[in-house]
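quick one, 77 residues, struct below
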Amino acid sequence: MPMAREDIEAAILAALPGAKVELRDLAGDDDHWAATVTAPQFAGKSRVQQHKLVYAALGEKMGGDLHALQVTTVVPT
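---
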């Protein structure tokens, strides 16, 4: 069963308190998502480190309940 938008957002927000999460369903199937995550925790980290934080928030759901996630990370100004 695909992962719901609310569950994706909740998982990211639990791991990155204070983040802003914008999700877009890429295929209309709740299985392929694009996420733009703006979080203060990204400051001073490389883009790869930022993406790892987002993927870690989703843990074992990635590749299972959540088939694909395109991530864009932003450090708030």
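Residues 5-74 form a domain with the GMP Synthetase; Chain A, domain 3 fold (CATH 3.30.300.90).
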